[in-house]
Design goal:
By secondary structure, the protein is an alpha/beta fold. The chain has one domain (2-124, 132-177, 204-230, 262-280): 3-Layer(aba) Sandwich (Rossmann fold), CATH 3.40.50. The chain is 33% helix and 15% strand. α3 links the parallel β4 (67-70) and β5. α2 (55-62) packs across α3 and α3 packs parallel to α4. The longest helix is centred in the first third of the chain and has 21 residues, at 82-102. Residues 3-218 form the NAD-dependent epimerase/dehydratase domain. This is NAD(P)-dependent oxidoreductase.
């Protein structure tokens, strides 16, 4: 298929472009970064610079594609003004959806976020109602990033009501790459008393890219939402014991399928997309949080 990947220079976008090419798809990459005007490296995808907050530019790049994978976004709300985060993230997806409906794109794969229920960046303390968190968990976003992602999922709902287009929203957990495991997750291993907003959930960027490829190739109707997280937690904690130790009875603990379970379950994605994660923090870090040699 002809697939457009937005945010192609981000850590998720880069991995997704590579995974889609390896799966045999014809990929166009787009981002706000300037193109390189030298001879492209062998195997490099077509690249087109575009500002997705400009509707005209979006219409120009979406036309002619079968699927759009929308990875572009300001990835968190703390380093830009709230109105910039909210406006950029919501309007970029709005333009992508509008153009996709008009030009007959068959599927939009929308990169949403684990923060939609209200985790990570609330102005007031927030705990999940139960864990592991799944797609049925109540939604209560506070910050502009999570709120825009929540509204983005509603844009996908509207798109399938008004057209024959199908949508998939992927809510990844904290995305890790080979370059940032030690910086991001190392402290949680070195000091096991440290808490994590998503209860020690994470996902490798390559496993996430595999899920996005499956979403591109899926024939699921309508709009489906999937959490994508590694099945294990950072540090291989006894999950039930850790939740009880740090939160007591404040969070309902539901059944887990392994002792070292994640705070977010991806059972739905494994069941409906056929997604099978294969990477772990153990591929990069010692149990004490040091990089593997």
């Amino acid at each position: 298929m002809k697939v457009l990947v937005t945010g192609a220079h981000g850590k998720v976008g880069r991995a997704t472009v590579t995974a889609l090419q390896e799966a045999g798809h014809d990929v166009t990459a787009t981002d706000v970064a300037r193109p390189v005007f030298d001879t492209p490296e062998p195997g490099a995808p077509r690249y087109q610079q575009a500002d997705l907050t400009d509707a005209g530019q979006v219409y120009g790049i979406v036309r002619g594609h079968d699927v759009v994978v929308h990875c572009a976004a300001i990835p968190e709300p703390t380093q830009n003004p709230p109105e910039v985060v909210f406006g950029n993230n919501l309007m970029s997806l709005f333009h992508v959806i509008e153009a996709s409906v008009r030009f007959g794109v068959t599927r939009v794969v929308n990169l949403s976020s684990e923060t939609v229920p209200g985790f990570f960046f609330p102005e007031r303390d927030f705990l999940p109602t139960y864990v592991p968190v799944d797609e049925e968990h109540p939604i209560a976003p506070q910050d502009p990033y999570a709120l825009a992602k929540h509204f983005g999922e509603q844009l996908c709902d509207a798109a399938v009501r008004r057209s024959d287009m199908r949508c998939t929203s992927i809510r990844p957990s904290w995305v890790q790459t080979a370059d940032n495991y030690a910086r991001n997750l190392g402290p949680l291993l070195a000091d096991r008393s440290l808490l994590s907003a998503s209860l020690w959930a994470y996902i490798d960027a390559l496993d996430l890219a595999d899920a996005l490829v499956l979403a591109v190739e899926s024939d699921l109707p309508g709009h489906e939402v999937f959490y994508i997280a590694s099945p294990d937690n950072v540090g291989g904690r006894d999950f039930a014991a850790a939740v009880h130790e740090h939160y007591g009875d404040a969070i309902e603990l539901r059944e887990v399928d392994r002792v070292d379970a994640s705070g977010i379950t991806s059972a739905k994605a494994q069941r409906m997309l056929g997604w099978t994660p294969t990477r772990s923090w153990r591929d990069h870090l010692t149990p004490e949080g040091r990089p593997l040699a």
